[in-house]
Amino acid sequence: MGPRVVLAVFLAFLALGPAILPEFYVTLLNYIGLYGLVALGLVLLTGVGGLTSFGQAAFVGVGAYTTAYLTTTQDLPAALALFGSSPWLALAAGLLVTAAVAWLLGAVTLRLSGHYLPLGTIAWGISLYFLFGNLGFLGGYTGITGVPALSLFGFELADTHHFYYLIWAALLGAIWLTGNLLDSREGRAIRALKGGTIMAESMGVDTARSKMVVFVIAALYACVSGWLYAHLQRFVNPTPFGLQIGIEYLFMAVIGGAAHVWGAVVGASLVTLLKQWLQDWLPEVLGTTGNFEIIVFGLLMIFVLHRARDGLWPLLAKLVPEGAGERTAVPAAEPLSRRAPAPAGTVLLEAVDVVKEFGGLVANDRMSITVKAGEIMALIGPNGAGKSTMFNLVSGVTEPTSGEVRYCGERIDGLEARRIAQRGMGRTFQHVRLLPAMSVLENVAIGAHLRGRRGVAAAVLHAERAEEARLLAEAARQIERVGLAEHMFAQAGSLALGKQRIVEIARALAGDPNLLLLDEPAAGLRYLEKQALAELLRKLRGEGMGILLVEHDMDFVMGLADRVAVMEFGQKIAEGVPEEVQNDPGVIEAYLGGVD
Amino acid sequence: MDLQIALLLGQDGIVNGAVYALLALALVLVFAVTRVIFIPQGEFVAFGALTLASFQAGKTPGTLWLLIGMGVAVAAIDSFSAWQSRRPRRILQVVGWNLAYPLLVGAAIRYGAPQEWPLALQVLFAMAVVVPLGPMIYRLAYQPLAEASVLVLLIVSVAIHMALVGLGLLFFGAEGSRTTPFSDASFQLGDLMVNGQSLWVVAASAALIVVLYVFFERTLYGKALRATAINRTGARLMGISTTMAGKLSFLLAVGIGALSGILIAPITTVYYDTGFLIGLKGFVGAIVGGMASYPVAAAGAVLVGLLESFSSFWASAFKEVIVFTMIIPVLVWRSLTTHHVEEDE
Amino acid sequence: MKMKSLAVGLAAAAFAALAQADINVGVIVSATGPAASLGIPEKNTVALLPTTIAGQKINYIVLDDASDTTTAVKNTRKLIAEDKVDVVVGSTITPNSLAMIDVVAEGETPMISMAASSKIVDPANPKVKWVFKTPQNDVQMSTAIVEHMTTHGVKTVAFIGFSDAYGEGWYNEFAKVAEARHLQIVANERYNRADTSVTGQVLKIMSAKPDAVLIAGSGTPAALPQVALMERGYKGKFYQTHGVANNDFLRVVGKNVEGTFLPAGPVLVAAQLPDSNPIKKVALDYVTKYEKAYGKGSVSTFGAHAWDASRLLFDAIPVALKKAKPGSKEFRAALRDAIEGLKNVTLAHGISNMSPTDHLGFDQRARVMVKIENGAWKLQ
Questions:
Q1: ipTM
Q2: Which of A287, A329, C158, C255 qualifies as a cystine partner to C210, CB 3.0-4.6 A?
């Protein structure tokens, strides 16, 4: 029984639900659907994108209040009258309002880093709650009554059963769209957020945009849930949109498994059903109707997290044998267009008198290096010599205090990392920055981000499959190029460190660079792995690639590099072919350190 | 609004801010050492105050049963693992702290008529009941998850918060309590009338901040905590047990929380669920301080107190809206000015 | 297949329950969350209610809505669909009760709310056909306060209330009555139930120099503004609402409340009512039973709303039983009609005369003015 069969059984169960389940369970499934929709947004936002939000309940409120206001107010201003004429138009209005509010809040709070973001979401979650309660036209704390029932093609959905199908159609639709999004170029960009901003930006991802995309989508899901809630409940007041409920949504996502779309459904089901069962059973078990439900609920949740800290979905998923869902082959596709290669010997990278100061400390002092097409240039030096700083300056992670960095004659110092990547410079990281849970293929495909065009709208509908196939085929080609074809579909995190470093090179190559920047690629590699790496780099050089290598493994560098520059205390102390540099007294002094 | 009103509001803001500052310090401490965002911090404010109120009303506080219950659980788990690793002396220690201690405190309260005790002794016993709950909660809920992500630890905190609020309602009921003030005195300070208890709050907060400073700078345990906060793995390699550091930080945090509750209980009414909003505002202060810097966290908390006080004068219905909306620009400013090191998570 | 047989089994079990024809009363109270201080005495009261009425066994199914509307609606659906209740009593607070109206109307089940707002039984809403309530309307209480103020020389008044449905409902009703009687409201402030300080609001009120202050809060949290005003040396009159009518309030507010006025249901001062007042007997009966079960001084007027709901059922059920068997749609309709037809029912909070346009049925006898004297409630 593969995953498809399980899914089919689940869908059949849902379709037959109202016919076979007791009446009240249909009600519960309605709530599960409503909560699941919000939790799904959180899976995207928190589980996948790594952005924690406590404020989703406020967006549910925006959706619910927009429709409640529009459909119950008697004499709306003419401009709004159209939206108030039908709940469906009110939904459109709600989505617009939510998108606008989310965009505004996102513009302010998404730039918050670390723990500031969750607090920012608490702040606007609370603010919106009190606004709902204090604005007279929204019914104040008492609420708005008489929200009309929904009707579809003239058929009134007043009954719980009819609403059930609408809610679950919305949820399953959202799951489908989310699944599509995650399995696309834009989705990989979103997933790359968890690998850190620097990595994502270096692959050409506009991280600010990706964050905004998930934030707005999560808010829109919450809005739809709120709209459904308002018309199911037919009454709206502020309590269901407060901070406590916002926290509860996050709770559902994490308990269910925040990294998986189905985790949202599992979490919403668990929380809803458990609360219900506790309400039914605890008085019988304890023989008294004290207020024990919330206590026992809290304790059970701690227990669940002790047993399954990634949520319940991964445990459930293990029960289903792997099968059809996994990708096992990459279909052939027309290759992507390539940038014009630089003729061998042309100067690709040129840093002139670059100075970088941190406070009073000079990390790089008038450093100059060049890298040409078809050569391997190595930058070496003892620990703390300033190699990594130099690397960051060249790749756009930081800006030089003074001096110039040029790429193919164009100044690039001060440009963002993704703009530099766009110009044809690929890089790897000293500490491997792969997404361990993603396959090697998808990791490498992130590197090809800039070679695709299609946006979010196409991705959620999977209307970009042709381009996607070309991107994946390109990624597969690069994986074969570096000799990891057998690991193409394995999880990146399952590979040995040496192989992970090679995957990073493949990822950089997927961007079709003319210049490759490698930050200590041989660190932690075994002898044979180093040889394989050297072989690969020679091959790339042979194909006309320029390579800048930052390394402190002397043996590795000396056998490989065409030219070597040596740094100490932020300055270049020697430059030349390996033999020259090896015999330079200054270099020997620096490396062996005053053995007199 | 005249100067006198401004002064009064300022005074009110500082008194509230002092409590938020204490909680902010505790939150920063716990987060730095264990990466736990300790949402239940606020519940201990309520537990501290209401335990004291129970003594004064001549009742046995429910928190005592919680202490004994959790003590039994910890003793059972730890004795079992000590028995497995054949360390009989450890069993003695575990049973002593988690079983004998709660029972002794319980006996003193049950048979000692705390209603008649002097206030200082009542406070001492309220602390004796509430504070050990901190390390016990760490042991039972967080220690098994010490290496989990910040998000998972946060969700555990939410679950504990739910359970503790439920227990609070069970122990103390829905209605609030006030306790006898430490001092009935009030002083005329120019145009300003300052009551003695407010001075107590500010003075005790300031004193506690100094004590914590000395603790972190001068004592071995304090230095160990700081070391753990800076580099967990490094500290472990240096022989500082993560578990010990975690328990110690929870002990301090819960102690600070309970003491805050005891300090404010005479000037306001404390309910079983008072703590959440107070804790949240302490959290705001802590985050303004970047979850790392103690003085900035304290300043942030006082800022929150002042904002709250002034906005409750100008537009009381929109107080929370104002406080939390004003926080956002502060957050943006903090976020842009602090150097953010990307975490390898 | 398993599912199907399970469903059949459940249906059979439900049918069996039906055949026994006990009367099922679903009770929804806010026993946790912000409204817990109101909901807990109501829940406690349920344990004291009669277990047989007119020879029929009564099953009470008590559910907590945690002061949350979503849970209140979910619980109502459960009571109607799973427990097949014949009547729903609840919920404690106004928003929850309003949210439940649609569900009971859809399920054609009568409901007796224990919340204050007159909106709950607003006859303009056709669905309200199924909804009754036992607490006095806010407007009734507001009128009592305004009357008392105007006859005692109060010209200006400041209002401070909870920032929730309770404070909001009170302000709206109070402002309407005050305007009609030319009483000037000079300040309108809000605070949160769990706030630790109301200094800002109090200073604002003091600077408006009102003759009296009305505090609209429930239970012990209503003490905070009064204590703060006293500390700042406010010398005017204090008015509280019936929300404070429990002994915990007196305990917390201490000596600060002497001379405070409030309107309340007669049950608060049952023992002081004249013997000629028929309410006295019913109210004292409730107080005695409650204090016997939960200790002296534990009674609050909120619990009496649950008691009153049961009194209504006590009189209506025998009438309905003549028309249909419990557990049936017909019985619920008959019960609804019977409640609507109740006349002169003496409750702990007043005397109710129901009619199709008045699903509360109280008159002036349902409220008294009370003054706090020597730390106790004193009938005026």
A1: 0.89
A2: C158
